[in-house]
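Researcher: Sequence recovery benchmark, item below. Answer with residues only.
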């Protein structure tokens, strides 16, 4: 009888572990359950900073060499700082963290998370929710703190989304992987063109979640295509990211959100609009600065159809904007609208933080010929 009881208890424990591994958490907009990693493993589930048990971090499943890092942890001469709270995780070679969420099939979602490089040079992250996946390069550091907020989007193919953040790196030192913190998500509602604007999401009001308390804005990575963009309607067709800024922490020309072009000609956004060949259109937009001490002479280059306009803007770094417009005749039933900054800029109070002009309130309308 004792043997039967032991077998029963063993099966019960296996069943409990399997249930924990396969548990699905109901999703709500905001930080994911324990997305800030403030709830950590038990001491018995750790060896130094290394997490030994794949279910040791509450609400997460870990694979490979994952470390649980306390802010202020020293690695050689490097001091590891956490952007919010006291804890973060570090992903070693081929390591990942995973969480299963209950979502709405067919709905679009945007994932936001903080990431920081440590000692590897060419760091990147593979973000996936099957069948969607994307590689986000994090070797360019946009802020002096070393931590940047990134966004990535997906469309739910079923009612369960398995969110995986994976380090595909192959460093000699497995402890050289990126740090991850502040994982959050929000539902996206892709806007449609209207009779007042042929462009979708011209005011950038629909976009990724900006973490409460975050003052850096959210980077929308390069090579983001239109089908699953965290900035619905727009593509990032460049080598570097663009930054999504909010009115709570920056100066925004119109509404509550705008885009900062933070990497010169390497930081561009594009939208392809439906047009009628031979018809005249006007593209109008606002150019300004984000009130983030980004001073100096700036130029935004706007492209619409076959026309180009350079808009100079003298920034005092304290907020402000001007309006500009460009008229063109459509030569195709699809016309490209694109913006980038001519120059690189750095914040005047922080020469290691990239910045640039802000664009907002982008409208495209059909007009009668004069």
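Model:
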């Amino acid at each position: 009888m004792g043997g039967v009881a032991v077998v029963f208890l063993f099966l019960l424990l296996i069943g409990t572990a399997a249930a924990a591994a396969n548990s699905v958490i109901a999703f709500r907009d905001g930080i994911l359950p324990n997305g800030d990693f403030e709830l950590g493993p038990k001491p018995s589930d750790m060896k130094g900073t290394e997490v030994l048990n794949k279910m040791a971090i509450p609400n997460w499943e870990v694979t490979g060499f994952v470390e649980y890092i306390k802010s202020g942890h020293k690695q050689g001469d490097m001091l590891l700082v956490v952007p919010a709270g006291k804890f973060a995780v570090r992903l070693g070679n081929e390591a990942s963290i995973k969480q299963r969420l209950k979502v709405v099939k067919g709905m679009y979602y945007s994932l936001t998370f903080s990431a920081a490089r440590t000692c590897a040079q060419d760091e990147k992250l593979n973000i996936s929710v099957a069948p969607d996946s994307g590689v986000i390069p994090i070797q360019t550091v946009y802020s002096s703190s070393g931590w940047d907020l990134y966004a990535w989007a997906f469309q739910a193919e079923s009612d369960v989304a398995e969110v995986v953040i994976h380090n595909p790196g192959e460093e000699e030192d497995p402890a050289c992987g990126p740090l991850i913190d502040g994982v959050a998500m929000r539902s996206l509602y892709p806007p449609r063109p209207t009779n007042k604007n042929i462009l979708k999401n011209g005011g950038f009001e629909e976009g990724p979640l900006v973490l409460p308390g975050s003052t850096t804005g959210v980077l929308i990575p390069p090579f983001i295509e239109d089908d699953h963009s965290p900035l619905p309607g727009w593509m990032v067709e460049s080598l570097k990211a663009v930054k999504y800024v909010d009115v709570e922490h920056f100066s925004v020309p119109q509404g509550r959100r705008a885009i900062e072009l933070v990497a010169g000609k390497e930081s561009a956004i594009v939208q392809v609009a439906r047009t009628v060949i031979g018809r005249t259109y006007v593209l109008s937009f606002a150019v300004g600065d984000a009130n983030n001490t980004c001073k100096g002479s700036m130029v935004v280059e706007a492209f619409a159809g076959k026309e180009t306009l350079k808009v100079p803007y003298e920034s005092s770094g304290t907020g402000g904007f001007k309006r500009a417009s460009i008229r063109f005749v459509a030569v195709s039933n699809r016309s490209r609208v694109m913006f980038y900054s001519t120059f690189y800029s750095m914040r005047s109070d922080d020469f290691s933080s990239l910045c640039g002009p802000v664009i907002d309130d982008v409208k495209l309308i059909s007009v009668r010929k004069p």
